[in-house]
Amino acid sequence: KLSKRLASVAHYVRKNDRVADIGSDHAYLPAWLILNQRIEYAVAGEVVEGPYQSALKLVKQLGLDQQITVRLGDGLAAVESADEISAITIAGMGGSLISDILDRGYQSGRLRGEERLILQPNIGEKTLRTWLMTHSYAIIAEKLVMEEGRFYEIIVAEKVTEPVSYTLAELTFGLFLPEDDPDLFKEKWQADLLNRKRILKQLEQAKQPQPEKIAEMIKMIELIEQL
Ligand code: SAM
Prior knowledge:
Layout (H helix, E strand, L loop, with lengths): L3 H8 L6 E5 L5 H8 L5 E6 L2 H13 L6 E5 L14 E7 L1 H14 L7 E6 L3 H10 L2 E11 L2 E10 L8 H6 L3 H4 L1 H24 L5 H15 L2
Parallel strand pairs: 1-2, 1-4, 2-3, 4-5
Antiparallel strand pairs: 5-7, 6-7
Helix pairs in contact: 4-5, 8-9
Bound molecules: S-adenosylmethionine (SAM).
InterPro entries: SAM-dependent_MTases_sf, TrmK
Organism: Vagococcus allomyrinae
GO molecular function, one term: tRNA (adenine(22)-N1)-methyltransferase activity
């Protein structure tokens, strides 16, 4: 059984997508997708030897060698054109690392622009949305989930031909999240606001001027209070 977080990622994989799961760790997500007859082929990419071995082991145990190719590689280097990937999932990493993986895929041509991107950043959602926007990826769906007291955002994007433009508030809070589950959304940002106010107070008490950070935080708080 998948975690609620990974189940939410799986929800956006279309029937018979050819999936590349980058940073797959144990390959739980591709294994679940195959075992539940959602897809027939996946690549599980890992850059670290330990998780790569875990993925190989699980795929072997489940007898899914034909359906899941496990490759050791950095980001989208684990993907080959013959895989004909139609959906890329990247979950459980920071938004800036996900952006970096996408960016290197974009530079190398491994990210073709035809794949649906299903992304679950742990932090740095704004950085990731900004990368998507500047590379003409339209955000087509988003989901906020809570698991074991932590909030997770899932961002689904597809490449479009026209330029994409989002406001600072959309980049920060998401396009669909305020309406999707307003109570959970409020809960997330109220917790975030409290946290930021606490940091501000600590900085003040420590007489630590960090002008740029403070300005950024105040801007954020103002944005939140407008909600
Ligand atoms: N995707 C799984 C999930 O969401 O539960 C595993 C998340 S785990 C916290 C992050 C994984 O990403 C680690 O196994 C790490 O080795 C892998 N990783 C980090 N940077 C990577 C990169 N550049 N290319 C491929 N895998 C990477």
